[in-house]
Design a protein that fits this description.
- The complex is a heterodimer.
- By secondary structure, chain A is of the alpha/beta class.
- Chain A contains 27 helices and ten strands.
- Helices cover about 65% and strands about 10% of the residues of chain A.
- By secondary structure, chain B is an alpha+beta fold.
- Chain B has one domain: Ferrous iron transport protein A (FeoA) (SH3 type barrels), CATH 2.30.30.90.
- Classes of the chains: A alpha/beta, B alpha+beta.
- Chains A and B meet through helix 3, helix 11, helix 15 and strand 10 of A and helix 2, strand 5 and helix 3 of B.
Chain lengths: ~650, ~90
Amino acid sequence: MKKDKIIIALAGNANVGKSVIFNHLTGLHQHIGNWPGKTVEKAEGTLHFKGYTIDIIDLPGIYSLSTFSIEELISREYIAVENPDLVINVVDASVLERNLFFTLQLMELETPIVVALNQMDMAKKKGITIDHKKLEKILGVPVVPTVATNRTGIYDLIQTSVDAIEKGTRKPAKIRYSEEVETRIQKLSKMVSKLQLPYPARWVAIKLLEEDEQIKGRIRPDPKILSAAKKLAKETERIHGHSCSTVITSERYEIARCIAREVQQIVPPTKPPMRERLHALTTHKILGYPMMATAILSVFFTIFSFGDYTSQLLSMLFKYFYSVYESLFGTEILATLIWGGIIEGLIAGITIALPYLIPFYLALYFLEDSGYLSRIAFLMDNLMHKIGLHGKAFIPVMLGYGCNVPACLGCRIMETERERLLATFVVTLVPCAATSVILLGLVGAYIGFQWALLLYIIDLLIIFVLGRIAFNILPGEPTGLIMEMHDYRTPHLKTIVKQTWFRLKEFIVMAFPLMILGSFIIKLVDVLGLLEPIANILSPVTVVWLGLPTITGITLIFGVLRKELTLLMLSTLFGTANFANVPGFGPREMIVFTLVAMLYIPCISTIAALVKEQGWKRALFITFFEIAFAIVVGGIAYRLLMLTGM
Amino acid sequence: MEKKLSELEPGEKAVIISIKPSPNYRHRHRHRWGFQKRLEDMGLTPGTRITIVKSAPFHGPIEIYVRGSRLAIGRGMAERILVRVEK
């Protein structure tokens, strides 16, 4: 039977060139989304090949198929339950042993596999030659050598894959463990095979012996099997002196090591190559830091000078459009509403988010792909631990100082869901450029620079404390850094550009409607003359608790759209840009106002990014938490300042 | 000689003996083996040979060479990995 629709999944370790292969295969037919109900990215694409429509699913880059991270769980559930026609396992030929450990686990899932032996060029540079025919024989699955960055072997890969599917499923070779383990696996799998499960019986048996929580949950209705598994695992533990899970992982790695030794020959180059020296230099205990500072500052400078310039250019363009618009439609309510509500929202998205997001994504993927990101994480790990994060979070947190939006999106480089949520939360607390403008423009200009600095430090302390608290109360196991630092390499530019483009597209689809809706609602309230009544409703909070003038309520509402609007609105409503002489708005009020504006709510673009990355529930939770928190802190600050007689 | 991974000097070679579960962890959470499993999945199983490359300053992570690749391991985790130093 010939079907014309095929599903192929790409699986493999992180940084093995999987996304390069994905981009070669799917070209511009890609769709980036999230796995349903999860915060993990799902990339899908289609390919037409010899009359077939092939759906390609890019699974997350992982090292194992246990349940350590949500990515691992998603991957194995997808492979076992959704049953793709084939899995292409992308393997880094230059780190064969570690990659084969993953291949072995795929084989245990008894899914049809084709191995793409990628980065053959890198392996060659390291003096490694691999007999791929021999590897094919040992694994019992087709092996295709590839160099994804220059397209070598890609055609072969897809041809081999389609051939494999046409020929019908060929089960990969069976992995044999040591006698003690093997007999127990067989005993258990005989019991399991009577159950109706979507997974292969042998695999379930192995996972039960490994004390896999998720699989144990599936077996719960059969306590007999569970207790048998427990007994068998205990026996193994007694023999080896390590837990059964440890024994199985060890043996699997040992098998991977033997296969690697069997098929590869290594003649290391005599003189340390460039990338090794670069690695030593960039992780050097003294030189590493100035190099990192230079690199990060130049990335920042590029992102923000490009963003600033483009953003201003676009604003000017829109201002011109507005004058045309005004002359055409006048300033009647409907016209104002359409412009102010809908078009302004769009403009906010185009002029604020996009100019920064484009260079940001390019830079992030460049840093990640080249391998430098992991070196930064290595150097900064200790510092980030102080706020309950680890080294990898340094980049998103730094980015937060520029703009929270890319920072939120950047949090996806964190490995576990817990870490991602934690980093995202911390990032939304970081004062962005617009917040710094308020700080300097109000407190810095009218009270003194030292006060602005003090508020900045207070904000950092708050981040530190809240970060620690979140670290302690979030469920899940706190994890330290365990990170592979892959060899430096030249990033594949085309892939980076494509990745940027598809992420941007996804952001626009997700965030723009929200921004437009947000600005429409606020404009509607404004047009209907409801701003003042709302400010009055808010007055128990603004006036009584925070000691601010009533109209600040209005400015804080506008700040949701864009934080710098709080300052602009303030001058509009006070009727002056010189805040020194405004009655009832002295240093005390300025400090309280700035504190609240810094902390109270992520702007609408950030909320949109939060929704995209973490889902509605968490986005709303973070938002409301921060509003409440800002009000509490502002009120306390007000009272403290009263006490000091300011 | 038995040591913690975190106590080794750059250039030293060692064999992993075992990984200690985190101290307070057991009482608070159900899945007690998470981090140990993670280390093992990354190839740090008992009996594995490793080489210390360097450690980041200010008590930062430790870079080791294992199974043909380079790993960075946070200090807290390195303290729970017991090794035997090789000559």
